[in-house]
Amino acid sequence: MLPLLAVLCIAAIAVLAANSVLRIPEGQVYALRRLGGHMRRVGPGTHFVLPLIERIARKIDLAGASLAVDDLERDGANLRATLYYQVLDVERADRLLDDLAGVLREHTRALVADAEFPLALEARARWLRQALNARLRDCGVFIARVDLY
């Protein structure tokens, strides 16, 4: 009975040791949540975590992403936009990341309905990108490109 218990304890320790090493790829940041609700962020590389106490709450991609925004109406014409964005500051963007797509869609729809929206198609995309970046500057999100069609 004693040798079986010793083997089980060694196996449990080995499993915990293997689960305590976390490898995070380049271009990503992981938010780890502890039991008490405390969160910490860890960047690319190899990190040690406490497997029974910490868990991965969110994986944040820093490489960039795109979002299609449909049903934009301006002067009786239907527009569609594709936003290419990147998270620059994880600390500031953390509160938006759960609903970043919804926030971007909401701001885009509000700006397209704005009275200052330019008439020229080339100027529209540039103006929309600048206006979105002005609104999201404090949120740690950068709009790299806007395609309107």
Features:
149 residues, alpha+beta, Tetrahydropterin Synthase, Chain A, 3-stranded antiparallel beta sheet
Q: How would you describe this structure to a colleague?
A:
This protein is α+β, with helices and mostly antiparallel strands and 149 residues long. 34% of the residues lie in helices and 38% in strands. The strands form three sheets. Strands 3-2-5 form a three-stranded antiparallel β-sheet, with no helix packed on it. A three-stranded antiparallel β-sheet has the order 6-7-8. Helix 3 crosses helix 4. The longest helix is centred in the N-terminal third of the chain and has 18 residues. The chain is rod-shaped. The N and C termini lie far apart (73 Å).
Short synopsis of the structure:
Helix 3 packs across helix 4. The protein is an alpha+beta fold and 149 residues long.
Present the secondary structure layout.
Blueprint: H1 2-19, E1 21-24, E2 28-34, E3 39-42, E4 45-48, E5 54-61, E6 65-74, E7 77-87, H2 90-93, H3 100-112, H4 121-136, E8 141-148
Antiparallel strand pairs: 1-4, 2-3, 2-5, 6-7, 7-8
Helix pairs in contact: 3-4
